Amino acid sequence: LFRSALYCDKDDLAEMSAQIERLLRDGALSSSLSASALSRARAFTWDATVRRTVEAYTKAERGSGVGGSR
Q1: Has residue 16 got a pLDDT over 90?
Q2: Which 8-state DSSP code applies to residue 19?
Q3: pLDDT at 56 exceeding the cut of 90
Q4: Which residues are CB-neighbours of 19 under 8 A, at least 6 positions away?
Q5: CB-hemisphere CA count at 13 Å for 45?
Q6: pLDDT at 70 over 50
Q7: What is the average per-residue pLDDT within 20-42?
Q8: Distance of CA 23 to the CA centre of its chain
Q9: Closest listed residue to residue 5, CA positions, set 41, 45, 46
Q10: Average pLDDT, integer, range 14-42
Q11: Are 37 and 43 in contact (CB under 8 A)?
Q12: How far is residue 5's CA from residue 16's CA, in Å, rounded to a whole number?
């Protein structure tokens, strides 16, 4: 499980401010979240994106009957 973000209610400005302050004050937390985010981002390569896209199209084509024999 990757923990690479702090969460808050988008409509609660006090909570959002508190989380931003937390990141600014806690260097260890900021470094940890940053390292986790970079690690997670490595999974999103162009090669992986192409492979998964082709797999999805192939699966959809098989399921829809498109491209089958006539």
Answers
A1: yes
A2: H
A3: yes
A4: 6, 7, 8
A5: 6
A6: no
A7: 93
A8: 20
A9: 41
A10: 94
A11: no
A12: 12
